[in-house]
């Protein structure tokens, strides 16, 4: 069992090996509710064409969505004309992506792949990789964070970009969690709160209108920490956005987005 030291009171529960089991965290009842949580239409209205424009700016054509979830970005980018491959480590999510792609009349490759062994699953290199929806914080071990960014770097063509985001843990770790509800998790029914946070673990609680409750545990990565990991993994430049804006105040945003370029 893995435990993480907490700076908070000793009666605060510590993360267990279960937190590292990302697949186990996405139980069918949560996966069933995911689209209600993110609300595709409202999410699209808030993101507008932010990711498609970044990808076009990098002249990307072949795009790998490594954290497809229920397929929102894979479907959206396929609708924009990108040659998309959707991947996720969760069999439940992979199945949901397949169904959502079909429901939206889109056809692209969908595969189950853990980032830690990505090279074993993919076919050739990509012009861009997207890892969105605060997925990367599912990696609790520093060795995994290094290894996964190296996998992503390796899977890119020269000139390729990695777009990777996370919730604003700089604020959350200072107990200043706020969610405008305008970005990413746009569904109006569910309430998202922070049940626990310290420097190693953040536990989100999702309460649904019908009384359903789920928790997700993640590693609360800081913005500068991820930028530095990206440079360490061999990326040449990292550009950071807050809630889709280039000029932002880290104290004011819900999500941070990094665009890392490989030469
Ligand atoms: N990108 C989607 C979105 O924005 O709605 C889903 C985000 S969800 C917070 C995180 C996703 O990352 C889950 O679908 C989970 O299965 C996937 N994931 C987490 N760790 C992973 C790993 N090591 N390998 C592959 N997928 C992983």
TrEMBL record:
<dbReference type="GO" id="GO:0005829">
    <property type="term" value="C:cytosol"/>
</dbReference>
<dbReference type="GO" id="GO:0006730">
    <property type="term" value="P:one-carbon metabolic process"/>
</dbReference>
<dbReference type="Pfam" id="PF13649">
    <property type="entry name" value="Methyltransf_25"/>
</dbReference>
<dbReference type="GO" id="GO:0006111">
    <property type="term" value="P:regulation of gluconeogenesis"/>
</dbReference>
<dbReference type="InterPro" id="IPR014369">
    <property type="entry name" value="Gly/Sar_N_MeTrfase"/>
</dbReference>
<dbReference type="InterPro" id="IPR041698">
    <property type="entry name" value="Methyltransf_25"/>
</dbReference>
<dbReference type="GO" id="GO:0051289">
    <property type="term" value="P:protein homotetramerization"/>
</dbReference>
<feature type="domain" description="Methyltransferase">
    <location>
        <begin position="63"/>
        <end position="160"/>
    </location>
</feature>
<keyword id="KW-0489">Methyltransferase</keyword>
<dbReference type="GO" id="GO:0032259">
    <property type="term" value="P:methylation"/>
</dbReference>
<dbReference type="GO" id="GO:0017174">
    <property type="term" value="F:glycine N-methyltransferase activity"/>
</dbReference>
<dbReference type="GO" id="GO:0046500">
    <property type="term" value="P:S-adenosylmethionine metabolic process"/>
</dbReference>
<dbReference type="GO" id="GO:0046498">
    <property type="term" value="P:S-adenosylhomocysteine metabolic process"/>
</dbReference>
<dbReference type="GO" id="GO:1904047">
    <property type="term" value="F:S-adenosyl-L-methionine binding"/>
</dbReference>
<dbReference type="GO" id="GO:0042802">
    <property type="term" value="F:identical protein binding"/>
</dbReference>
<protein>
    <recommendedName>
        <fullName>Methyltransferase domain-containing protein</fullName>
    </recommendedName>
</protein>
<keyword id="KW-0808">Transferase</keyword>
<dbReference type="InterPro" id="IPR029063">
    <property type="entry name" value="SAM-dependent_MTases_sf"/>
</dbReference>
<dbReference type="GO" id="GO:1901052">
    <property type="term" value="P:sarcosine metabolic process"/>
</dbReference>
<dbReference type="GO" id="GO:0016594">
    <property type="term" value="F:glycine binding"/>
</dbReference>
<keyword id="KW-0949">S-adenosyl-L-methionine</keyword>
């Amino acid at each position: 069992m893995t435990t993480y030291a907490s700076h908070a009171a000793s009666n605060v529960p510590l993360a267990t090996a279960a937190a590292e089991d990302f697949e186990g965290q996405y139980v069918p009842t949560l996966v069933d509710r995911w689209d209600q949580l993110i609300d595709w239409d409202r999410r699209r209205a808030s993101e507008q064409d932010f990711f498609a424009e970044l990808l076009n700016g990098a002249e990307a054509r072949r795009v790998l969505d490594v954290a497809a979830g229920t397929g929102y970005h894979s479907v959206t980018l396929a609708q924009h004309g990108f040659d998309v491959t959707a991947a996720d480590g969760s069999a439940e999510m992979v199945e949901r992506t397949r169904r959502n792609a079909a429901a939206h009349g889109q056809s692209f490759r969908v595969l189950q792949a853990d980032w830690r062994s990505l090279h074993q699953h993919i076919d050739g290199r990509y012009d861009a990789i997207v890892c969105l929806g605060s997925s990367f914080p599912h990696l609790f071990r520093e060795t995994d964070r290094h290894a996964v960014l190296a996998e992503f770097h390796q899977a890119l063509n020269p000139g390729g970009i990695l777009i990777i985001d996370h919730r604003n843990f700089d604020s959350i770790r200072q107990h200043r969690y706020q969610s405008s509800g305008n970005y990413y998790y746009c569904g109006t029914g569910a309430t998202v709160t922070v049940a626990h946070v310290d420097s190693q673990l953040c536990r989100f609680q999702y309460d649904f209108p019908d009384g359903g409750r789920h928790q997700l545990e993640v590693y609360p990565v800081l913005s500068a920490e991820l930028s530095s990991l990206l440079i360490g993994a061999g990326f040449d430049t990292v550009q950071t956005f807050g809630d889709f804006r280039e000029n932002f105040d880290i104290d004011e945003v819900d999500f941070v987005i990094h665009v890392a370029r490989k030469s």
